[in-house]
Amino acid sequence: MPDANEFAEFLRRIRAGDQQAAVELVQQYEPFIRREVRTRLRNAQLSRLLDSMDLCQSVLASFFVRVAAGDYELEQPQDLLKLLVVMTRNKLAYQARKHHARRRDNRRIAASRVEELEMAAAGPSPSQIVAGQELLREFCRRLTTEERQLMDLRNQGRSWNCVTFLQAAMNPAGPSGVCLRLAEDGTVRLTVSDATLNELREVLSRPEIRRKRCSLTDEVVTAFLATVARVATSQTSVPVVFTYARDPKDEPYVNLAITMQATYLVSFDDDLLDLMKEDNADGRALRALAPNLVILTPPQFLRAIRTAKGQP
Q1: H helices within the chain, ranges in order?
Q2: How much is the pTM?
Q3: pLDDT tens, residue by residue, 60-69
Q4: Domains and CATH numbers, the chain
């Protein structure tokens, strides 16, 4: 089993679309998924309809989609295994409910349709698919418009901090959107700078983003930017006291947090999150400048706020 640092690097490669990392993941975890499927497919009718290979492909494809979008917080291999097992059980339960509700004549059905399982139907095993780059191509094909845009922005060099704002604009009900609402109701203080606001405005005005995400109309974007400007404390001058060679695009956000003496910096960016590690030299330098600063993902931040308010 890899240690915590090795596992964190492994997940970073997965999120970045590293094919070899995907191969390693499937090789290590596919047997556990298929065993879970076989163990739970004891219903004779469902066992004729569903195949362990197909369900395994579905679980893996869903995992690649969601982990790239930053949805999962996994600290060790056991967390990943537990997640994949839960995803497998959920998919099995979903299929069982659907077939029961439709009262199908299972004797007349040889297999479920492709769209019902949300996966490729017959074909090679997941290991073979990944080895041939098929699973990664399928993973990209299955991305929602929002997820594809987020990946495109990251691949184009946009910081995840800007993407966190973009997530809030595109999905107000998601974790990033809820974080913004905490600033709106005065629970937390949001700080921005000219540099971070300019990046956000530029991204939201890009034709390819607006064209792919129909909900980002002129009215929605104008209202979102107005909300950020209204609820945020703006800092025009931000001295550069911290440099980060690993990812210079993160520097404006870190320096803003230092200047404003922020308690939290909220981001899905692995480079930023790694600054919290004790053995990270840049992290030690940051703690010397801002000893009270904590870097968290949006879900982690929301939990911290609930804990501070005495909520479960």
Answers
A1: 4-15, 19-40, 44-49, 52-68, 77-102, 114-117, 126-131, 134-142, 145-155, 160-170, 175-184, 194-204, 207-212, 218-231, 251-259, 270-273, 281-289, 298-308
A2: 0.55
A3: 877 887 776 6
A4: 4-142 (no CATH), 146-308 (3.40.50)
